[in-house]
């Protein structure tokens, strides 16, 4: 984990107009992904409360948010290719754009799995439902820390690193929740219902993979932040 203790509080060098626009485009993409994850979190909560009809009616909304995120990602990458051939951090910015899109795609995949579970009338046991709710809430919290870092990129480099450190800590917490939830799933659910267990495990795996992708974006942001102060 990168410590912010040695980060100079002074601002880094001013960005070029091209880099400023890339950051603005990334911030717009981040807002789209935020809406995707917020909708997923609400669907998970409905599923864990046993409101299967609501899940069946709403899970398609996540796909629409995901599609908007894909369009926003394309704009970021196209702009980077067109105007920033010599920018040192261009690959980091592109990596962040692809990672944000991947988070939205995985959120849509998780929502799709919830739709399948709901259509089959499958409800989680209370212990599993509690773990799913906690995991999804932590995932949204992790993402919000990443988005906060991105919003600070042109304003306060020290804050960027601080928010990214929160991301890294939350990712570790999510790893622990993921492992415990895996154990709970096999203990609480009927081992004879393999389809249910496979779908639930797949759902949890997708959420954990999303957390890893958010961490990767934070690591790229730390690189950009430190480069600005070099």
The helicity comes to over 70%
CATH topology: Methane Monooxygenase Hydroxylase, Chain G, domain 1
- N-end to C-end Cα span: 19 Å
Report the biggest beta sheet as strand number plus sense, adding barrel if it closes: none
How many H/I helical runs?
Answer: 6
The CATH first-level class comes to: Mainly Alpha
Oligomer class: single chain
Specify the CATH homologous superfamily.
Phosphate transport system protein phou homolog 2, domain 2
Tell the overall outline.
Answer: elongated
The CATH architecture designation is: Up-down Bundle
Note the beta-strand portion: under 5%
Total domain units: 1
Radius of gyration: 19 Å
Task: Describe the protein in words.
The protein is mainly alpha-helical. It has one domain: Up-down Bundle (Methane Monooxygenase Hydroxylase, Chain G, domain 1). The protein is built from six helices and no strands. It has helices at 17-48, 52-83, 90-119, 126-151, 157-188, 194-229. Helix 1 (17-48) runs parallel beside helix 3 (90-119), helix 4 packs antiparallel against helix 5 and helix 5 packs antiparallel against helix 6 (194-229).
Short account of what is shown:
By secondary structure, the protein is an all-alpha fold. It contains 6 helices and no strands.
Write the layout of secondary structure elements.
Layout: H1 17-48, H2 52-83, H3 90-119, H4 126-151, H5 157-188, H6 194-229
Helix pairs in contact: 1-2, 1-3, 1-4, 2-3, 3-6, 4-5, 4-6, 5-6
């Amino acid at each position: 984990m990168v410590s912010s203790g040695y980060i100079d509080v002074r601002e880094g060098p001013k960005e070029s107009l091209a880099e400023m626009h890339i950051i603005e485009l990334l911030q717009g993409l981040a807002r789209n992904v935020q809406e995707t994850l917020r909708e997923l979190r609400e669907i998970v909560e409905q599923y864990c409360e046993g409101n299967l009809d609501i899940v069946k009616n709403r899970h398609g909304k996540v796909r629409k948010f995901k599609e908007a995120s894909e369009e926003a990602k394309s704009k970021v990458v196209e702009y980077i290719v067109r105007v920033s051939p010599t920018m040192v951090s261009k690959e980091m910015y592109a990596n962040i754009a692809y990672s944000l899109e991947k988070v939205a795609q995985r959120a849509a995949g998780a929502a799709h799995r919830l739709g399948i579970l709901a259509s089959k009338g499958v409800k989680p046991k209370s212990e599993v439902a509690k773990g799913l709710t906690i995991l999804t809430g932590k995932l949204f919290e992790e993402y919000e820390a990443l988005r906060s870092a991105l919003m600070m990129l042109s304003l306060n480099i020290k804050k960027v690193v601080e928010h990214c450190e929160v991301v890294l800590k939350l990712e570790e917490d999510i790893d622990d929740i993921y492992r415990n939830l895996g154990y709970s799933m096999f203990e609480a659910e009927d081992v004879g219902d393999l389809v249910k267990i496979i779908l639930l495990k797949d759902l949890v795996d997708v959420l954990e993979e999303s957390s890893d992708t958010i961490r990767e974006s934070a690591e790229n942001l730390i690189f950009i932040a430190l480069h600005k102060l070099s």
